[in-house]
Amino acid sequence: MPIDIKQTTIAKAKADAKPRCRRYDIVDAKRTGLSLRVSATGVQWSFRFQLDGTDRRLALGDVDLWTIAEARSLVDRAQAMLRDRMGIPDEAWLDRMRVHEGKAATVTLVEKPEAQPRARFKWTYAEGRKAFLAKVESSRSDATFDDYRQKLSSDDMEALERQPLPNITRRDLSAILAAIARTGRESTAEGTQRVLSRFWNWLSEDAQINDSGVQPGVMAGLKAPDRVRIKPVVNENGDEEDADDPYAPGYVPSLSELGRIIAIARSGAIHPTIGAALELTCWTSQRRRTIVEARHQDFVFISDEIGGLWQIPSTKMKGGRPHVIPLPPQAWALWTRIMTAPRKPSSWLFPQIRAKAKGMPKSHVHPSPLTHNMGWMPGVEASPHDIRRTFATHGESELGMLRADTEAILAHKEDRQASPAAMVLNRGEQTKGVTAKHYALHNGTHRTWDIMRTWAAALEPEIEKAIAALEPVAEIKAAMRLARYGKPE
After folding, report:
1. Is the distance from CB of 325 to CB of 452 less than 8 angstroms?
2. What is the 3-state secondary structure (H, E, C) of the chain?
3. Among 2, 225, 355, 486, fewest CB within 10 Å belongs to which?
C-alpha cells in the first residue's frame, strides 16, 4: 500500500537493509511510480512506468544520492517527458540529470540514446499497415486490396512488424526488395516496391503524419533491383518469342487431354469451384486471372438455342469496351450448373473457398489452385496457359480457323484495338456501328459465334469419351493426393 515516504521511513529501510534481508518495495503515495527498493545490498530509489504496454523499472540511485524532494522532482520530469512524448527515461537521461543536479561531474559512458526518441510513440509498421489497408478496402477494388494486403503482410516484411515507422529507412526497404529479387521473384519485387511507395506516400499525408511520424519524400527514389536479363529465345525467323504468346513453340495439349481435364473437373475429385473454373478455362481459353475474376453480372443469357455471352470487362481503362466471348449451349451449360448448385451469396462466379485469416473478407479464388490442380491430375500434362496454345494451334491446323479468328478469342494483343470481338472484320465483312455489332452478338450471327461453335463442337465429343473412360473417383483422388503430398494418405 502506498505511503508518504519520510525520513523515518528511510531510516527504517536502512535498518532493514542487512545481510539476508528479504527484498521489498515501499511505494510513495505522493508520486506515481516512485518507490524505495530495500534489499540486502542497500536502499535505492526506483521509478516504475509503462512503455508499449510493458512494465519498465529505472533504478534512480542510492537513497543518499537524492533527497526525497529531489527524487520526487526527478520522477515529475520523467512523467512529463513520457506524457509529452519527448523521450524515454533511461540510463542516458539519468546521467544527464545527475550532471544537471550536480551529482556527477561528467556523463557516464552509456549506450548511445535513440536518434528519434519520439518514434517510440508513433505507429509501428503493423499499425500503419492496418490503417492503410482499411483505407484501401473502403476505396479500391477487392483485387487491389488483396494485392496490397499480400505484399505488405508477406513473410518478407516480418522484420519490420514492430518497428516504429519513422525508424524505417529507404535502405531497409531496398534491402528487402533486393532479397526478394535474389530468390527469382523479380516481378514480385517490382510490385512490392510500387505498393510500399504508395503506402509511405499515404503515411506522410496530413491526415496521418501525426500518427505515423513519416515525413514526406523519405522513400523518394525507392526502386526494385534491375532485372537480370535473360537471353530471349529466337525462332527460326529471327524473331524473339513472347513467353505469354500462345502461338510460340511449347507444349500443345490435344483435344482429348482437354476432354480429360473437364471429365476430372466434373467427377467430384476436386473442389467444385476449382473444377468449374478449370472447365470454363477449357471452353474459353482465357487467362487464369480473367477466369477467377469472372462475376455473375458479366454473363448474359440469350436463349437455349443460341447460348449466352461472357462480357469480360476491359482491363485497360474504366468504361472501355469489354472483350466478348460467345458461349454456345455446350459451354453455357456450365453457367447453368454453377447457378443451380447450392452456394453462398457472392458476386464472384468462383468465390474464395475460405478466408485466409479470421474476419478477412472473401474475394474470388486465387489463380494458383487452377495450375496446381491441373498439375496433380493423373494423365494430364497441360497447364492452364497450354490450353490457350491448344486453341491457337488446333484451331488453325485442324478446325479451319484463321489467325484473326483465334486472336479474336484469345485477345493475345489486347492493346492493338479496343475489343477483338468488335475489330474491323476481315473476309470482306464491314463494321456496321455499335448497334449492328451488339445485335449480331445477341442474335448469334457475329463471326465470333462461328469460331466458338466450331470449338465447342470439337471439344464436346472428347469430353464424352473421357467421361466414359474415366477411372473411379477414389482412384483419381488417391493419385492427386500422391502427386500433391508424395504419399497416398
Report:
1. yes
2. CCECCCHHHHHHHHHHCCCCCCCEEEEECCCCCEEEEEECCEEEEEEEEEECCEEEEEEEEECCCCCHHHHHHHHHHHHHHHHCCCCCCCHHHHHHHHHHCCCCCCCCCCCCCCCCHHHHHCCEHHHHHHHHHHHHHHHCCHHHHHHHHHHHCCHHHHHHCCCEHHHCCHHHHHHHHHHHHHCCCHHHHHHHHHHHHHHHHHHCCCCCHHHHCCCCCCCCCCCCCCCCCCCCCECCCCCECCCCCCCCCCCCCCHHHHHHHHHHHHHCCCCHHHHHHHHHHHHHCCCHHHHHCCEHHHEEEEECCCEEEEEECCCCCCCCCCEEEEECHHHHHHHHHHHHCCCCCCCECCECCCCCCCCCCCCECCCHHHHHHHHHCCCCCCCHHHHHHHHHHHHHHCCCCCHHHHHHHHCCCCCCCCCHHHCCCCCCCCCCHHHHHHHHHHHCCCHHHHHHHHHHHHHHHHHHHHHHCCCCHHHHHHHHHHHHHCCCC
3. 486
pLDDT one-digit tens code per residue, 278-296: 999 999 999 999 999 999 9
* C-alpha torsion sign, points 369, 370, 372, 378: positive
Within 13 A of 266's CA, how many CA atoms are on the CB side?
19
Q: What integer is the mean pLDDT of 151-159?
A: 90
- Quick: pLDDT tens for 7-38: 999 999 999 988 888 889 999 999 999 999 99
- pLDDT at position 310: 96
Q: What is the pLDDT of residues 104-146, one digit of tens each?
A: 775 444 444 444 555 566 899 999 999 999 999 998 888 788 8
- What is the CATH code for 255-485? 1.10.443
pLDDT band at 359 (very low <50, low <70, confident <90, very high): low
Look up residue 343 and give its amino acid: R
Is the model's pLDDT at 331 over the cut of 90?
Answer: yes
User: How far is the C-alpha of 144 from the C-alpha of 320, rounded, in Å?
Assistant: 19
Residue the block writes with cell 476436386: 270
- Contact predicate 245/233, CB 8 Å: no
pTM: 0.54
